[in-house]
Amino acid sequence: MKILHICRNLAGSTVFPQLFETLHALGVEQTVFVPEESRENIGRNVPKDVETRYELTLRKSDTLFFFRKAERTCPVIERTIPLDSYDLLHAHTLFTDGSIALRLHKAHGIPFVVTLRYSDVAVIWKYEWHLHPMAREILRAASAVIVLSPVVKTQAMSFLPEGERETLTRKTFVIPNGIDPLWLNGTPRTSLHSPIVIGFAGKLNRRKRPMDALAAVHMLDQGNGRYVFLGCGTGPLEEEMQAALAPEDRLLGAISGRENMCDFYSQCDLLLVPSAAETFGMVYLEAMSQGLPVLYTRGQGFDGQFPEGEVGFAVDCGAIKEQSMRILDALAQYEERSKRCVRNAAEYAWPKIGRRWLDLYHAALEGKR
Questions:
Q1: Range name among 86-100, 172-186, 297-311 with the lowest pLDDT average
Q2: pLDDT tens-digit profile of 148-178?
Q3: Rounded to an integer, what is the distance from CA 46 to the centroid of its chain?
Q4: Do 210 and 150 reside in the same domain of the chain?
Q5: Is 165 in the same domain as 240?
Q6: 1, 2, 114, 140: which has the highest count of C-beta atoms within 10 A?
Q7: Are residues 106 and 252 in the same domain?
Q8: Do 127 and 257 belong together in one domain?
């Protein structure tokens, strides 16, 4: 099997290199083609031992003239890559990558699969109405459609007319992001800190809603010092957050690297990240691997990965009172829930997720024979 990945967002991602390296370890022959706009991004995040080709085929003006992306990119692929040697195309976004894959599929008959991401569902589909016909054509032509969570699968069903949704449902599969096995060294928690520490990890911006997390902790604590907030990250809300911290709260700034993040999680008893939008939410999986129950946003990427209460609870974005009450729910039966967090995180190890991708690729090819 030989796969040509079309991956516009490789430069800004840590997930894609891990996926491609996992597939390589499973014996998949593959090439990653990256249509790029910025010369500064060339060569970033190249996966080890995987042929990767960056090409400057995109321009800022493509925001207004979207279809030029595929018109400019496909001839470069056709000129530089022997397409007749590839069995399958994988478009890693619905719109940019999917439009390229669809054009190549029409011209060369190569089957393709497409992944729907946050920007596809929550941004481009929502606001770029003129691209809806193209998106529908991509979904109809794809051999398989992949989403990262059951929530996105439900949302994607509305992209096609009701009479076509059954067909789309049959070929849509949920495959979440994986976690580096190096994370899977955590042990279940047997006791809580005193005071109890509620953690937040992420960018300090409006989308991640760190002020909501801080307010939920303060509402629960009511100045008694039994619950404190511990956050990490930087962003435009940093000054506002610093001003709102209680004396016992702490904001640590940017933290990078697995070991440093593990140290951060070791200081926490629970993770609350009530983002307004998430494609998946790797931060929840990382926290789980270290034994932390998690509170995640209802209707966003992580919601539906586990039964309610299994590793934590879904909360509504902006619902401060609900978040404070769910903190108490997640801390109940703490030792057992912590055990489930560690155990369930192990099921998301990249080698296991990679095998799911391998099975899907085989199924997509079988369906076209």
A1: 297-311
A2: 988 888 888 888 999 999 999 999 999 999 9
A3: 19
A4: no
A5: no
A6: 114
A7: no
A8: no
Q: Which residues contact 359 (CB under 8 A, 6 or more apart)?
A: none
Judge if 130 and 30 occupy the same domain: yes
In CATH, what number is assigned to the domain containing residue 214?
Answer: 3.40.50.2000
Over residues 67-88, the pLDDT tens digits come to 899 999 999 999 999 999 999 9
In angstroms, the first-to-last Cα distance of the chain is 14
What three-state secondary structure class fits 195? coil
CA distance 198 to 113: 40
* Contacts of 300 by beta carbon, 8 Å cutoff, 6+ apart: 149, 151, 275, 277, 278, 281, 317
* Residue 188, preceding peptide bond in cis (omega within 30° of 0): no
3-state secondary structure of 178: coil
Both tokens of 61, joined, read: 């003006």
Residue 150 and residue 22 share a domain: yes
Number of separate domains in the chain: 2
Query: Are 333 and 356 within one domain?
Result: no
Place of tokens 């998946």: 280
Rounded CA-CA distance 214/22 in Å is: 37
> Is residue 240 located within the same domain as residue 318?
yes
Short-list 137, 156, 78, 71, CA closest to 110: 78
Please name the residue that has the structure tokens 């430069």. 11
- Domain extent, residue 189, equals 181-346
The first and second tokens of residue 288, run together, are 């789980």
Task: Convert the pLDDT of each residue in 27-50 to its tens digit.
Answer: 999 999 999 999 999 999 999 999
Round to whole Å and give the CA distance between 19 and 47: 9
Average pLDDT value for residue range 235-246 = 96
Say how far apart CA 17 and CA 200 lie, in whole Å: 26
Contact 342, 288 (CB under 8 A): yes
Neighbouring C-alpha atoms within 13 Å toward the C-beta of 234: 4
Q: Is the pLDDT of residue 369 over 60?
A: no
Residue 319, pLDDT above cutoff 60: yes
